[in-house]
Amino acid sequence: MQLVQRRPLPPRRVRLRPGGVLPILAILVVLLVLVGIRQPSFLDPPSLMSFLGRSAPIILLAAGQYFVIVSGEFDLSVGSLVTAQVVVAARLIDSDPARTWPVVLLLLAFGALVGLVNGLITTRLRVPSFITTLGMFLILVGAVYLWSDGAPKGGLSEEFRRFGRRAVEDVPLLGRVPYALLVLLAVAVLAVVLMRSDFGRTLVAVGDNPRTAQLSGVRVWRTRTVAFILSGLAAAVAAILLGGYSGVSFQAGAGLEFGAITAVVLGGVALGGGRGSVVGAMLGALTLELLFALMNFYGVSGALRSTVQGAIILLAVAVSATRSSSR
Amino acid sequence: MAALAAVTLLSLTACATDEPGAGPSGGSSSSAAGSGTGEQSKFFVQADYDAELALLGATPTGPADKPWEQMLNPTMVDTAKFKKAGPHKICFSNAALNNPWRQVGFKTMQAEVEAQKSRIKEFVHVDAEGKDQKQIADINDLLGKGCDALIVSPNTTATLTPAVEAACQAGLPVVVFDRGVNTKCPVTFINPIGGYGFGHAGAEFVSQKMKPGGKVLALRILPGVDVLETRWSAAKVAFDKAKVDVVGVEFTDGDPAKTKKIVDDYIQRYGTIDGVWMDAGAVAVAAVEAFQDAGKPVPPINGEDQLDFLKVWKDKNLTAIAPTYPTYQWRTPIIAALRILDGQQVSSPWKLPQPTITQDNLDRYLDPAMPPLHYAMCGCTDLPGYPQRWK
Questions:
Q1: How far is Cα A148 from Cα A125, in angstroms, rounded to an integer?
Q2: Which residue ranges traverse the bilayer (chain A) (predicted)?
Q3: Is residue B247 a part of any domain in this protein?
Q4: Distance (Å, rounded) from C-alpha A137 to C-alpha A27?
């Protein structure tokens, strides 16, 4: 597809590599300027830090979703996985600080397991990932409901909540740096390193053209399954941060899967796979959150958020469809 | 498709970016519209509002230490025709168990049944899981099970009315509680004062405790639900009267993360918020945390009687109040059913008092040993299995 893309593009003054991060960076800068005009205090380090901290979970989910989407699949189960993780964490920790770390490890394992199941069902049983992960979504919703009798029990310890709620205080220039932001930066570095490794190239190649990848000796099913596991792990980390941020609730992960997918396509990643960067996806999530913040500053009803998300998805898919049909 | 999507997005972004033109002169759009509370809810009924506010000041009859047996302005009805020798089989068609309020309430009801076990030989409970169709079928099934009395907590008012009417026609005494039905056929309908009383108590407190003309943020769970609409519409009346500036009315979906973001956004946008009103307490703690995490003092706020809110209120010494929709109302239907089967008179409707937790009586309701989602106004401390059953 990349060969095809290069040929028909008309000459441009600025060279835009398809799937590059320049367009999303440009949108981000425009939004930052608009925010700066309307609400200059938002750009002060303390409020900017708090914004980045509370946006960390959705950015992490976008990174996780990126791995799956760039390999040519979807993961609709992440929102309900986050809810399940938060509810499970509250019940297992039951406000006992000593259980914090074991439960954190358990959540990561649980996230990876859900990803593994998603991946194996999609690749080995050849169920379209849209259906697999929708099924997983429903299974998790039902299971959580059954297990908790319809209302979350127990409570999260302050130690657990620290990751999503607390910050490193008194940092020169920046003030408070939320732990969530540090976690996000660490994951971002890992994700970039991963995408630059052989695995990353293989992942994109699989999404670009699974047949070619297969013929050149890639085990497509294994690569895609790993992508699902990475998405599950990202959901686990996001759940830990989100549970920390807001405490236990049945709504913890509601709608996050769509937020993550919107962010990924906004970040220039092609639905269907093979194009786009993980940094773009994460910037897409940040841009989306900033757009929502901006809408709030201009007094636009929060109810329009899902409409905006839907419009972005439709627009992005439409644009990529026009591009691919013009070849 | 592409064009449609593009147009949609453009018009949306136009919405988002059009306002700066009006911005410098008009400020935010919400401050232009009077006190910012918007139009009155379609659910608002002046007569009901007046009646509920009058009940807030009424003195209940019945034992003062058992509010679940008390009645406000009782109208007694004769039940001699339902008199029957015990022990009885009591059946309960429950709308749902899908939130902590209903969980606590149902445990309280089960404990009441246990406390009355000498008089109840069997208690049948059917959970409609929040589905009207299931509850209609449930009620129909229960009619063939030889129940001596039927208790119904309807899922929705209009849809369940015919099913309740059918039950009345079957000849057994029917007791409805919590949400009502559009028929007078049940022997009695039990509920506390209601949403207007709840909304009014919180709004009056917040507007009295904050600085005059200050900025209020109103947080609502969902639009269009009658019990919640009445709470908000009474608050709107109170805020309009107090002439405070309601800078935002936002829907939280009961999601703490969303609540925290909304509150954080408003703190960023206005610098300070002087009062927070909520139509339900589920996300009160999230709102409090948003102020704490932003390093701001928590303004006067109302929550509900959930333990997590009462704890943070006490620990952080908040200026707060907790109107309640008491879970002790789940005890009353059992008591009413037994009285009816004894042929004793009961009040119809049976209006229960709706206490408010204030700074003065906070310690009475705050039991730190109870779980965060427990409702303090359960009236359950004297029931069998307390506290373990509610943990």
A1: 31
A2: 21-39, 51-69, 76-93, 99-120, 127-147, 177-195, 226-246, 278-298
A3: no
A4: 32
Assigned domain for B81 exists: yes
**What is the extent of the structural domain holding B182?**
66-191+329-353
Within a domain: B133: yes
Given a contact cutoff of 8 angstroms between Cβ atoms, the answer to whether B151 and B330 are in contact is no
The Cα B288–Cα A89 span in angstroms is 22
Structure tokens at A223: 């690569």
Selected residue of A52, A249, A266, A317 to mutate for chain B interface (largest B Cβ count, 10 A): A249
Please indicate whether, in this complex, the C-beta atoms of B371 and A155 are within 8 angstroms of each other: yes
Half-sphere exposure of B95 (CA within 13 A, CB side): 20
Backbone phi, psi, residue B218, to 5°:
-100, 125
- List of residues 6+ apart from A139 with CB closer than 8 A: none
Residue A107 neighbours by CB under 8 Å, 6+ apart: A85, A88, A89, A236, A239, A240
- Kindly state the DSSP code that residue A249 receives in the 8-state scheme: -
How far, rounded to the nearest angstrom, does the alpha carbon of residue A35 sit from its chain's CA centroid? 23
Report whether B245 contacts B273 (CB < 8 A): no
A246/B28 CB distance under 8 A? no
CA distances from B299 to A51, B182, B255, B256, B292 (A): 22, 40, 21, 18, 11
Question: How far is Cα A165 from Cα A159, in angstroms, rounded to an integer?
Answer: 10
State which H helix or E strand residue B123 sits in.
Answer: strand B120-127
- Residue A68 CB neighbours (<10 A): 33
List chain A residues with CB under 8 Å of B125: none
Global pTM? Answer: 0.79
Contact predicate A242/A107, CB 8 Å? no
List chain A residues with CB under 8 Å of B258.
251
Residue A304: which of B219, B269, B16 has the closest Cα?
Answer: B16
Q: How many domains does the structure of chain B reveal?
A: 1
Count how many residues are written for chain B. 391
C-alpha to C-alpha distance for B19 and A34, rounded to whole angstroms? 12
Domains and CATH numbers, chain A: 43-325 (1.10.3470)
Take residue A317 and report the two structure tokens written for it: 């898919």
Residues forming beta bridges with residue B125, ordered by sequence position: B92
Instruction: Please tell me the predicted confidence (pLDDT) of residue A325.
Output: 55
Tens digit of each residue's pLDDT, chain A (327 residues): 444 444 444 444 444 455 578 889 999 999 999 999 988 888 888 888 889 999 999 999 999 999 999 999 999 999 999 999 999 999 999 888 999 999 999 999 999 999 999 999 999 999 999 999 999 999 999 998 888 776 677 788 889 999 998 888 888 888 889 999 999 999 999 999 999 999 999 999 999 999 999 999 999 999 999 999 999 999 999 999 999 998 888 888 888 999 999 999 999 898 888 889 999 999 999 999 999 888 877 777 667 888 888 898 888 778 767 765 544
Partner residue opposite A247 with nearest CB, options B268, B269, B285: B285
Task: Give the CATH number, domain containing residue B342.
Answer: 3.40.50.2300
Does the interface predicted TM-score (ipTM) exceed 0.85?
no
